[in-house]
Structures are given as structure tokens and as C-alpha cells.
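Training component of the fellowship. As part of building independent skills, the fellow (R.M.) carried out the full modelling exercise for a liganded target. The chosen ligand was beta-D-ribofuranose. The inputs are recorded below so that the supervisory panel can assess the work.
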Amino acid sequence: MDHNKTLPVLIDCDPGADDVFALLWILINHKFSHLPMKLVGITTAWGNVAADKTYANALRMCQFVGATDIPVGKDHRQIESQDASHIHGEDGIGNLSSMLPEVQLPAEEKDSVEMIVEAIKQYGNELVILVTGPMTNIALAEEREPGILSQCKKIIAMGGAVQVNGNITPVAEFNIAYDAESAAKVFNATKNIVLIPLDLTTQMVFTDEDMENSFKNINHSTKQEFMRELTKFTTKTNMMFRETAYDKGFYVHDAHTVGMLLYPHIYKGSFYDVHVETKGELTKWETVVDVRNHARTEVNSFIATEFNKNLFLEAITEDFKQFDFGE
Ligand code: BDR
Ligand code: CA
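Fellow's submitted model of the complex:
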């Protein structure tokens, strides 16, 4: 492999059950596949649960696949917002952390925002940033170094609801609603965003059966058991809070950022201008997108609106096959 041609990727996340699917998928590709990509960093944000927990969960996932060489950043701001522990569990991973080995904290605690700034400076227009949580760290990177976001190749972010209802209010989706000011700044700062909204992610419910099929080569092991229990837990909370409109399973929202990065042919969409409402009375935190059929003078995002479910499941299954979950 020509390492000069290897695509550098950074993921900013708030694990989070569906973030775990995204993280494991990208980590497995980084470590085992022949695809020309490398994961250069994982940065974590407050979101589904508090910063200490999302940080610990990202480290746990690196330990899970034996990729402890990947730098992991922590969100160092002290903020309070409405988390999603009712869906993801108090620990963010289905209250299952005790199933995994104790987390090894690195001697040096890196800062998420600093890591993002450094990664863009180092890899410039080759770097792809995946965002699977609130856009806080990304917006802070822009605040620290104005103009820096437009220097990276693209930002593939899960967030927003375009023509479907939100999951926090009738119009607002969690990642945007959690820190709408930051999201608004990001959409104003750059035109290289690929957005994966609820419109797409709610088209497929990931079921127990999908879980068994996707990870079928994984024999009985604690790791397999962890994936099974995480699926069960998230299915239960999704059903309890009627996230999936009574379809049994859960949405693997964040995994689509990895799907879009590695298998873009599975997805379809179009270019639009996206902005975030920060102040509306009934519509605050909405992702406002002009989907009218007319000539567009400005666009800042490619919005993915459709995907091929079979190819998506096939891709995740094939990739996870490369990983030996034994032990
Ligand atoms: C998003 O909200 C979070 O709870 C999930 O991890 C995902 O990133 C879906 O709205
Ligand atoms: Ca997330």
C-alpha cells in the first residue's frame, strides 16, 4: 500500500450505543482491512452522556479491537445539557461497561478541540472528519482557528431532520438540539459537509436478527455477548420511548457516517444549503433546508437521503468478519 495515498480520518463522537457501532466499524477497518484509510484520532464530546463517560467508552472500544495506539481526546468544558442516558444507559453503553475489561486511561489526557485543530493542520485537505455527536468540538476548533474547517476534505456528520420529525422536538434532532449554536456555526463556516439526517437513518431498524447475521462469524465470547446485549438494551429503550414507531430494533444512526465514508455508492442524495435555527419559539434547533425545486445559488452540504439497506448490512457484515472476537 502506498501510505502517501492513505486517507486520514478522525471521528468526533459521544458513545453512545450507535456511536459504538460506528467506532467499531471504523476501528476494525483501520486495523484489519486493506482499504487505504487510517484512523488518526478519536475525539469525544459531551452528548449522550457526560464527557468522562464518552471518553472512557471511546478508550474501551480501542481496547475492544486492540487499537490502543489511536489517540483519544476528551471534551474538557464543563457543561450541563439534556443527555440521552434514557436511551443509551447511564454509562452510555447499555449499562454494560462491567462486561468489558477495566478501562486503561492514558497517562496524558488529550484535548478534543486541540486534536481536531492539529489533525487539520497536519493532514489539510486530505482529512475526513466524521461527527456522530453534538458539533461542539468542531465549532470550537473553528473558533480557535477561523477558517480551519474549510481546509479539511469533508465533514461527514449525523444530525438534523429535514423532511421528517425530529427526535427531540417535532423539528429538532438530538445532535443538533444538544448544542444548536455550535451546529449553526459549523454550517456557516464551511461548505464541505455531508449530512446524514434522521430522514435517512430512520429508514432502517437494526434488529436482533440483523445483529446475529452481521456478527455471525463471531463465536461465543464476551465481546460477542457485549454486542448482543447492547443490541438488546438499545432495542428495549428505543421501544420504550417509541423511537422506532413500534418496529422492533433500533436505529444505527451513527454507523451511516462510516458507511458513507467507506461505501459511498450505497448512498444517494443532493446538494442543499443547511442552516440551524437557534432562536425560534416553536422551531428552535431545526435544520432549515430549502428543498424547493429551483436553481440554487448557495449550497454548503450534500444531504444523504436514501441508501441500499441490503448493501449496508452486507458491508457491515463483511467488515466485521475481519475481526476475531474470540477471547
Ligand atoms: C443521534 O443522537 C444520539 O442519541 C445518537 O447517538 C445519534 O448520534 C441520533 O439523533
Ligand atoms: Ca451519537
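The panel noted the following from the submitted structure. The chain has one domain: 7-320. Residues 14, 16, 18-19, 47-48, 132-133, 254 surround calcium ion (ligand 2) (CB under 6 Å).
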